[in-house]
Amino acid sequence: MSQERVKAPEIAPTPTGLQRRDWIAGLERGFGVIESFDETHARMTAQQVGDRCGLTRTAARRYLLTLTHLGYVSTDGKQFWLTPRVLRLGQHYLESARLPRIVQPFLQRLASQTGEIAMLSVLDGIDCVYIARNGPNRAMNSGFVLGSRVPGYTTSAGMLMLAHRSLDDIHRWLAHTPLPAFTDHTITDPQVMREALLRIRHQGWSLSEQQFDVGYRGVAFPLRDHRGDMVGALSLNMPMLSESSEAVVGRVLPALRDTAQALRNLI
């Protein structure tokens, strides 16, 4: 069943200390215009883009026309929409980033060992973004394809990474963020979500069942670099079938842990 993608306020990032003289506001606004398009706003007028980006109609139109000239936006003279060229931005990341290249052969081994879909994901705001994948092709929700993003609170990997944010960040996020339901099993109660994240934080791994995709579950384990910093999450995603939660954790968690340990000195 198709679900409307609802954007929720993000956990505030840590300030980078960028000097005002080094800040290019136009670049920020340009990316804001691109990011204003989504599933429910696929085609918009300049006024609608301006309203979503906090720009005047005139300013939004100038950004849109510039992006049209560069090939990232198309228009019929009234409405504007993104072109496939925007996908190049994400593709350049996947091609240039070191982490997916290092992890890929380990995911292949992990998928072969368990027979499940092995994935590497990172956190962007509160979204879980999948940057490497290996395993059998299954009719899973389109949110689980390479390069896609899903709300972090609906996946094992996303919940694991959210659980390792600072407690202040977690409390602030849950105090101001709605948790839209994607299935009947999605955790939408902030208090229940807080308890789940604290439990995950304590046990060091995560299990998520039917939070985003009915009939599917995932188990995730943190991926850390040689300094011990968490750089992403390794996860195995699978149909639930008749295997119990305890059985699946006992079967795949050791493989996830061993893979993360083998990668630790390489990243």
List the helices and strands and how they pair.
Elements: H1 25-35, E1 44-45, H2 46-53, H3 57-70, E2 73-75, E3 79-82, H4 87-96, H5 98-114, E4 117-124, E5 127-134, E6 149-151, H6 156-163, H7 167-176, H8 190-203, E7 206-209, E8 216-224, E9 230-239, H9 245-264
Question: Concise description?
Answer:
Helices cover 42% and strands 19% of the residues.
Explain how this protein is built.
Mean pLDDT is 88; it is low at 1-15. This protein folds into two domains: 20-85, Arc Repressor Mutant, subunit A, CATH 1.10.10; 97-264, GAF domain (Beta-Lactamase). Strands 6-5-4-9-8-7 form a six-stranded antiparallel β-sheet, sandwiched between helices. A three-stranded antiparallel β-sheet has the order 1-3-2. It is an alpha+beta fold and 267 residues long. It contains nine helices and nine strands. It starts with 24 loop residues before the first helix and ends with a helix. Helix 5 packs antiparallel against helix 9, helix 6 crosses helix 8 and helix 7 (167-176) runs antiparallel to helix 8 (190-203).
Helix content: 40-55%
How is the main sheet built? 6 strands, antiparallel
In CATH, what is the homologous superfamily of the largest domain?
A: GAF domain
SSE string: HEHHEEHHEEEHHHEEEH
Tell me the Rg in angstroms: 20 Å
Any guess at the CATH architecture of the largest domain?
2-Layer Sandwich
Kindly estimate the percentage of residues that lie in beta strands according to DSSP: 15-25%
Label the structural class. alpha+beta
Give the count of structural domains: 2
CATH third-level topology of the largest domain: Beta-Lactamase
What is the average of the pLDDT values? 88
For the largest sheet, list the strands in their spatial order: 6-5-4-9-8-7
Distance between the termini: 39 Å
Tell me the number of strands: 9
User: Would you state the CATH class of the largest domain?
Assistant: Alpha Beta
Runs in which pLDDT lies below 50 for 5 or more consecutive residues are: 1-15
Rough outline: globular
Count up the helices. Answer: 9
